[in-house]
Amino acid sequence: MPAIESPEDHPRLPPPPRDVPAFSPSDVSVIFVLGGPGAGKGTQCANLVRDYGFRHLSAGDLLRAEQARPGSEFGELIKGYIKDGKIVPMEVTVALLENAMRDAIEKGNTKFLIDGTKPPHRPELPRGALFFFFVFRLKSVAGFPRQMDQATRFESDVCPSMFTLFFDCPEEVMLQRLLDRGKTSGRADDNLESIKKRFRTFVETSLPVVDYFEKEGKVVKIDATHSPDEVYRAVKDAFRDRFQQRIAQ
Ligand code: ADP
Ligand code: AMP
Prior knowledge:
The chain is of the alpha/beta class and about 250 residues long. It has helices at about 40-50, 60-70, 75-85, 90-105, 130-135, 150-155, 170-185, 190-215, 230-249; strands spanning about 30-35, 55, 110-115, 140, 160-170, 220-225. It is globular. The model is unreliable at about 1-15 and about 115-140 (pLDDT under 50). Adenosine-5'-diphosphate (ADP) binds near residues 38, 43 and 180. InterPro entries: Adenylat/UMP-CMP_kin, P-loop_NTPase, UMP_CMP_kinase. It catalyses: UMP + ATP = UDP + ADP. Its cofactor is Mg(2+). Its EC number is 2.7.4.14.
C-alpha cells in the first residue's frame, strides 16, 4: 500500500510490518481504551488528560483529519468507511497512530490516550502525587484496537499494550447518548442508521478484542452506565490499582 502522510507535518510513513515494535514498553506504556460508540470513552479520556496530562490520540479523529486533508490519497476511501461505520483498513489507522505517537515523543511527550473524541485542552500534571508518577510514563490508546488484526499489528509494530480499559455499556444507553450528541456534534455518523451499523461493527469486530485481552488478564472493565463523575471515580480507582500492581512487580 502506498504511504500516507500525517495530518500535522506530513512525514512519509514507514512500511510495515516490522521485526520489533517501534517503541519499547519499558519506555512507553500503552493502554488500549475500548467501549461501544457512546460508552463515554472520549469523556473519560478528557478527564484523564485534564487531571493527569495524558496525550490523547483518537483513531477516529486522526482518520477524520486525514479524510479532510487536501490531497490525501485516502480521503475518499476513509470517508466511505466512516459513513458506513466500518473499520477503516488497518494499515491506514495503525500508521496514522504511529505517526502521531512519534510526533509527540519527538516533542518530549510520553503520555497518550487514543480515543474517539479529542479532549479540549491538555494541562500539566499535578506535582507530587504517586498516581502522577506512574501516569507520567503512560501512553493510552483508546477506541482502538477495534478488531483483532489491529491489536496484533499495533502490538508487534508500534508497542505492546500495558492493559485495556473497557467501558461496558448497554446499547440502549449508548443509543440515547449518541442521539443527544448528534443534536450538536455535527458528525455524519451520529444518526440512527449509522449508529446501528456502528453497534453491529462493535459487537462483531471489537468485542473479540476485549475477550482476547481478557484471557490474558489485561482488561480493566468499567461499568459505564453511571454518571460521568461516578464512572471517572471508577476509572481512577482502577488505574491506581493497576499502577500499584506494576510497582509491586
Ligand atoms: P464515546 O467516545 O465512547 O463515543 P462520548 O464520551 O463521546 O462517547 O460520549 C457520548 C455522549 O454521551 C456525549 O454526548 C457525552 O457527553 C455523553 N456521556 C458520556 N459519558 C456519559 C455518562 N456517564 N452519562 C451520561 N452521558 C454521558
Ligand atoms: P469514532 O470517532 O471513534 O466513533 O470513530 C468514527 C469512525 O471512524 C468509525 O465508525 C470508523 O469508521 C472509523 N474508525 C475509528 N477508529 C477506528 C479504528 N481503530 N480502526 C478503523 N476505523 C476506525
